[in-house]
Amino acid sequence: MLEKDHKTIFTNWLEEHSSSVMKVARAYTLTADECQDLAQEILLQAWRSLANFEGKASAPTWFYRVALHTAMNWQRKDKRRRSRQQPMLEVQAVPMDGPSSAEQAQQRDTVEQLYQAIHQLPKADAALVLLYLDEMSYREMAEVLGISESNVGVKLNRAKKSLSTLMNKESHGS
Amino acid sequence: MDPDKYQQAWHAQTAQPKVIVHADLLLEEVQRHQGNFQATIFWRDFREVGIAVLLLPIWFYLGIRTSSPWTWYLTVPALLWIIGFMLVDRFRHRPKPSEPGEPLIDCVKVSLAQVEHQIWLLRNVFWWYLLPFCISILAFFFHTAWLTSSAWWEFIASTLALSSLLAVVYGLVYFINQRAVRKQLQPRREELLALLMSLGDESSGESSGESTGEPETYAIVPASLSPFAEERFLTPSGAGIRNAVAMVVLVAALILVVVLVDMASRISDSQYAGTAQSSGVNGDALALQVTELREQKSLVGLAAMVMVDGKVGAVAAQGERIIGSGVSVEIDDRWHVGGITKSITATMIGRLIEADQMHWSDTVGSVFSEPNVHADWKSVTLRQLLTDIAGAPANFPRELWSHRPKPGIESTRARREAVMDVVSQPLPRPAGQMYSYSNVGMTIAGAMAEEVTGFSWEDLVKQEVFEPLELTGSGFGPPRSPSDTLPQPRGHRARLAGKFAMDDDADNTPIMGPSGTVHMTLRDLCTYATEHMQGDLGKGKLLSKETYERLHAAEQNQYACGWVVRYPDSRIPYKNYWHNGSNTMWYALVVFVPEKNMVVAVASNDGDSEKAEAAAWRVVEASVSRDPLPGQSAFAKKSPFAAIRWQGNQPEVMLDDDWFTLVSIGDVSVAQIVDFSKQKYDQLWQKRFEEDLVEVLTRMGHPPADSVTLIVESLFTGEQIKMENVVMSEENRKAIRAAARSRQDSSQ
């Protein structure tokens, strides 16, 4: 595949799915700084992985796979090396015009609860939940995770139950 | 809450982030990358030049240590080329220091130029790095294979194996370099180009708009920065440490290789520590020297004999018959003498000349009547062949080297065929004009003897030389030494990995037997050389005095018929005749010193001829300079004359305070004494006549008594006067010597 095609794919993906980068990064980190670092790492790894992209999978699937793989291995990185890095890349969240303030606040609380629940899930289940929340189809989930669609259904049902349980606990606890 | 509500809330919070790059941080990153890249290249160059510099003394050491041929040192200019090339390249492309206020785009351009230059270097690595070493190493491989191979297939097999190994190693090096270009440098170059383009676009955009006062940022695809990410994980100090460690490891590996090669060489050398065998009055002293020299030169086995007045004064042998076998060489062992065979062939021909079967002036054309004898060869004389001025080629073609015809008729037929092939071609150089060492020439002479007599060369040598001198320990080819009993030494060939024992059949082809296939015991060799030494005095058994004089008369380059004439020098202050021989598996040297009536023979079963030769000459020098043997009476320093002066070649002597012309001493005429002195002592003949008259007369076979009868001629009347009972006194000799010194001092 040509270099230019790689760049086009990356640019398009970045424009359409850069929000997924932040969500994955936040789901697998606990602090804002760590989130920023992981987001940078995901972007860099995505670019590096382009050389291996052969078009067998769709670009979103491919990059989502890279993002999750990078995030799940994040804790194995040498923290001392990361501490020497300077934040050359900055991923800034752009606020969107939203619904009413009351509804927005409620949804924001829900999202915060979701993140807290995801942090408590096993990493594999967390990945499934992220894909589910992004409204991916079973087929797309299967491609990202490398498992069969039927297996996705079984695992996702279990993960959703776990998520509901955790969300209920969070709701009662708050 | 319904899970769908989770998705709604999740998407409600979705925000499209903006990825931006801070210009100042990007500049810092580019500069850091540039510095890391420069450091990497610097340390690479440092390693290359450093290793090359270190290799120079190591290369000389290994060359000397392994006695490598001259082609080994061809790598030295290759190393110098690499050092020079890299230093010049570094000077021409030395990086400019980055200034604090340097724009990002300029920094990127510098990095791009550096990367592109490195790409050029690696893509052309074959021409400036691999090719010089290929040439030098291949030359060494071919030369070594040529020197050590005894058959054409062995040469081809050796060269193919070594060349294949080199091709694999250097092919791997080339592949690694090209892979570095594809995997590292080329992607880096493309990323820098992309960054350069994006920076150019951003600069164009900014120039058209007004400055908003906000921090300068770029919305750049992070892909441009991927090459830097890898470098960011290693700081310059870390890179320095890594390179330092790599350098230490490389140097250590290099030293380890040298040590391993040296250990392998030492292990392959003979570690034999057995006691030397010796005999004779000075046998112990000779044994000590032979042992020290054998160990010092790392020879497999070494033996030496000193014969004076036809009697063994000392003989010693130390070492192994086969390396590592533990079986010691002995003083009666037989040794291949190689080129010493030449004088034996010449002696045999001398016998045929005296028997009127051959003549010095016989020509190739007169003996070989075939029509295909080339015109150049027809007039070449026997004597020219014997003295290596025939213009003959040095050696036979290599395809003949492995031929093994049986001794006798088969060898004679093969030899004749080979000789005819040579003489049917033009001479390489004109005959009779220049000395050129030749095994072919002596072989042709041997073939001529076979043609004239109808006997094989081997039979002729036995009939004319071995049997009359009772050389019962002599034969042809290497001495037979079966592995199960090892009754005789085995030849050893020196190779890169050490020394290896050769089979009994390993030798020069019998075709060139007249030039170098005889083996002898040291006693036989010394007996033979003593015969030649005595022959000049008319005391030879085989030939007349005149024939021996012809055999020992040098034509050019001090080369006689199988003898080299050596005049007194600082190392051996006596005229001597010598020859050595080596078939690359054995070595032998024989020297006879007429003035000392001494013969020294040294032999080794080691093909390292350089070291063997050095050891042999050390033995000769020590033997010649050693004090007279206790059994050998030192010649009295006496003279019957009070003084001597010369009128040309005519001595005038002082007796009873009057001068006379000397006519004779006892039964020996002055003319005879003068002729003998000239022949034996060359430029020192007058000195010897004056100061060592007793020795001179004794060596002539007329040892004087304490008083002699002189016949002198009066300078005034011309009358001959007979003086009887003239006392030989030391006072007279001292006076003569003092006068000689006085003349010498006044002349200086």
From TrEMBL, chain A:
Judging by the UniProt lineage, the source's domain of life is: Bacteria
Leader sequence range is none
| Region listing for Disordered, in residue ranges | 77-108
GO terms for biological process, alphabetical: DNA-templated transcription initiation
RNA polymerase sigma factor 70 region 4 type domain: which residues?
Answer: 112-163
Note the Pfam families from the entry.
Sigma70_r2, Sigma70_r4_2
Where does the record place the RNA polymerase sigma-70 region domain? 15-81
Please give the Gene3D superfamilies that the UniProt record associates with this protein: 1.10.1740.10, Winged helix-like DNA-binding domain superfamily/Winged helix DNA-binding domain
Keywords annotated in UniProt:
Sigma factor, Transcription, Transcription regulation
Q: Which InterPro entries match?
A: RNA_pol_sigma-70-like, RNA_pol_sigma-70_dom, RNA_pol_sigma70_r2, RNA_pol_sigma70_r4_t2, RNA_pol_sigma_r2, RNA_pol_sigma_r3/r4-like, WH-like_DNA-bd_sf
Query: What molecular function terms (GO) are annotated for this protein?
Result: DNA binding; sigma factor activity
Membership in a protein family: Belongs to the sigma-70 factor family. ECF subfamily.
Sorted alphabetically, which NCBIfam families does this protein's record hold? sigma70-ECF (TIGR02937)
Q: What is this protein called?
A: RNA polymerase sigma factor YlaC
Please report the organism this UniProt entry assigns to the protein. Rubripirellula amarantea
TrEMBL record, chain B:
For the Beta-lactamase-related domain, which residue ranges apply?
A: 290-620
Q: Which SUPFAM superfamilies match?
A: beta-lactamase/transpeptidase-like (SSF56601)
GO cellular component labels: membrane
Give the E.C. number(s): 3.4.16.4
MF terms in GO: serine-type D-Ala-D-Ala carboxypeptidase activity
Give the main localization category: membrane
Query: Which keywords annotate this record?
Result: Carboxypeptidase, Hydrolase, Membrane, Protease, Transmembrane, Transmembrane helix
Subcellular localization, as worded in the UniProt entry: Membrane
Q: What class of enzyme is it?
A: hydrolase
InterPro entries referenced in this protein's UniProt entry, alphabetically: AmpC-like, Beta-lactam-related, Beta-lactam/transpept-like
Ranges annotated as spanning the membrane: 46-64, 70-88, 126-146, 152-176, 241-261
The protein's name: D-alanyl-D-alanine carboxypeptidase
Identify the species of origin.
Rubripirellula amarantea
Its lineage reads:
Bacteria, Pseudomonadati, Planctomycetota, Planctomycetia, Pirellulales
